[in-house]
Amino acid sequence: IPLRYQHDFVDMKDGKVRNRLQARTTMASGAEALKTFAVSRLLFDNVPHVKVFWVMHGLQTAQLALQFGADDMDGSVVEYKITHDA
Questions:
Q1: What is the rounded radius of gyration, in angstroms, for the C-alpha atoms of the chain?
Q2: Which DSSP string do the residues of 21-49 spell out, in sequence order?
Q3: How confident is the model at residue 46 (pLDDT cuts 50, 70, 90)?
Q4: Residue 33 falls inside a structural domain
Q5: Confidence band (pLDDT; 50, 70, 90) for 1?
Q6: CA gap 39, 51 in Å, rounded
Q7: Residue 45 lies in a domain
Q8: Is residue 3 part of a domain?
Q9: Fewest CB atoms within 10 Å of the CB: 32, 46, 47, 69?
Q10: Which residues have C-beta within 8 Å of that of residue 41, sequence separation ≥ 6?
């Protein structure tokens, strides 16, 4: 599951959105995410399935990812703890 880098987070102390690296990073663009799916499909040929989370990438990018190497779309990331770790 190629995950998009989440550069912002909510500080639990005051509830404000903060950047982990002091505004030196940005979230990957849709084009970069699609390239990641394509390269993942090519390099990890021993991995049978590549999944895209439409909640994280957006519905349009997730639909395009199905043409760029992903073969499964999921939207229920509540069960997974990986969104926080990404």
A1: 14
A2: TTT---PPPHHHHHHHHHHHHHH-TT---
A3: very high
A4: yes
A5: low
A6: 14
A7: yes
A8: no
A9: 46
A10: 50, 68, 69, 70
